[in-house]
Amino acid sequence: MRNQKSITVTIVHLALAVALISSNDQASNAGQTPVGPSDAASVQAAMPITSSDFGEPQVWGAATNVVSVKHLYLSAQPDLAALLTAVEQDVGVVINLREPDEQEWDEKAAATSLGLTYYNLPIPRSGSGFDSDVLAQISKLVGKHRDTKILMHCSSGNRAGAWFAVHLVRDHGMSAKQSIELSRHVGLTSEVMKSRVIEFLLTDREKSHDS
To answer: What is the CATH number of the domain that holds 20?
Structure first.
């Protein structure tokens, strides 16, 4: 692994932040040591992700931007029709990233009635940064169910994309710039959310260096 330079970053806007990160980020070769802690890292490290792993956006009921990456399907909020399509696609697990006050219907009851295993691990839709433990729990679930197709969603796809970006850096040794670019395909389109991801990755890396 190449030597890493010391990092001094001021996030003025997204483009500047990405440029600063990419100039100091570690190499993105497969098999490289992950930059952050995750129980799923050892499993995921053997499963490199490239652009060829991304499927074309699909429409599942109300979810109009369902994108597959290996055994994952990332999307916006599904409705009953979307869950029925998920079952038809052999999905076995649903991971809902929305907060309790966002729930507009009893998704858990609908999912479990269809035989789907349901988890709710909320990622706040606003604020700065993310809860590192929650992101690690999500990655752990993805690793635990690596032999099962998973539908992961939030409201628009941005939080699912944010988790995916952090996952690519932590568990696949990918650069921040590359992870954000790939995550754009699965729903990370909000500039505000991208800035939150960048801020989190910088803090996460500083913590890993200090430990």
So the answer is: 3.90.190.10
